[in-house]
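Need residues for this backbone.
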């Protein structure tokens, strides 16, 4: 497993543990005491480390190459999933995947951004950066959910919408804006979860929801820390300073009322135990669906609208 820079002290202890285990097997000597002591030390250091992570360190976890992606969660969380392809205008953007799913016996429309874990997969999914065709596909699925009175769940992990010329030529800004408008009008429950990166309008185009959750080490921001640092300081190397200033973590956004809840991750991040993370995510979704069942269609629309209209309001 890829080790992040700040995790290297734990790696050194793990190497010593492995050495003792190897010596025990080769010599037949009992090193259980030493191994248990080192394992306890490693666990304590890891726990302390993860309780006091800086925003820039959480950023590294959110971008971890082995972090579970949309299809991982789909396979672990759903009893059934039928993918629905295309935007009905001649394209099928693979950076956004969606379809009909069953979660804990509930039929839902499940949509999310998809990243790859290898170069080949990342090229197929365009590194999780949707083009206009992806947002139009998502909009088609939103309307499908509305027609058949199905709740909508979106899982978001994107560094942003694709910034290429072709995306601009085919209406990137318009596609996202239309999604924002149409999602605000939906009369079915909508739940959005930021599972990794939630950057800019590329994330918001799937996140106008009644309930917005974040995984513990995910981030959600109007601009990437690198982009912010390049604009403010003309130096992308100051991304860590930007990450601190932007208030991008789940704790910060929960405090400001931008999100509705934080979903705890396994110690070390979602990639260390994907099935455990999937179970936690599933439980949070079931709880939110049950809560939203008590809302009427008009109340769902009004609640969602007022939630987003209230963001950024303050008193002097």
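Answer:
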């Amino acid at each position: 497993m890829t080790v992040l820079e700040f995790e290297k002290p734990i790696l050194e202890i793990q190497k010593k543990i492995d050495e003792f285990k190897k010596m025990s097997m080769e010599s037949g000597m009992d090193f259980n005491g030493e191994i248990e002591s080192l394992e306890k030390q490693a666990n304590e250091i890891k726990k302390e480390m993860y309780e006091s992570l800086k925003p820039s360190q959480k950023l590294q976890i959110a971008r971890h190459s082995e972090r579970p992606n949309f299809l991982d969660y789909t396979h672990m969380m759903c009893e059934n999933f039928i993918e629905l392809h295309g935007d009905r205008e001649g394209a099928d953007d693979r950076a956004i995947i969606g379809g009909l799913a069953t979660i804990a016996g509930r039929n839902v429309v499940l949509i999310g951004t998809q990243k790859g874990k290898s170069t080949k997969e990342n090229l197929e999914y365009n590194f999780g950066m949707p083009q206009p065709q992806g947002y139009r596909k998502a909009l088609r699925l939103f309307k499908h959910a509305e027609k058949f009175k199905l709740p909508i769940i979106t899982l978001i992990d994107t560094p942003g919408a694709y910034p290429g010329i072709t995306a601009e030529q085919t209406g990137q800004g318009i596609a996202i804006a239309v999604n924002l408008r149409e999602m605000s009008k939906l009369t079915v429950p909508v739940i959005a979860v930021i599972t990794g990166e939630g950057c800019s309008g590329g994330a918001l185009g799937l996140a106008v929801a009644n309930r917005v959750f974040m995984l513990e080490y995910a981030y959600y921001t109007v601009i990437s820390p690198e982009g912010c640092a390049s604009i403010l300081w003309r130096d992308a190397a100051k991304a860590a300073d930007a990450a601190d200033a932007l208030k991008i973590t789940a704790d910060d956004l929960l405090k400001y009322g931008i999100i509705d809840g934080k979903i705890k991750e396994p110690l070390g991040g979602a990639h260390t135990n994907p099935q455990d993370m999937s179970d936690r995510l599933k439980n949070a979704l079931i709880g939110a669906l049950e809560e939203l069942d008590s809302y009427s269609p008009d109340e769902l629309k009004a609640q969602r609208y007022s939630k987003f209209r209230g963001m950024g309001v303050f008193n002097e």
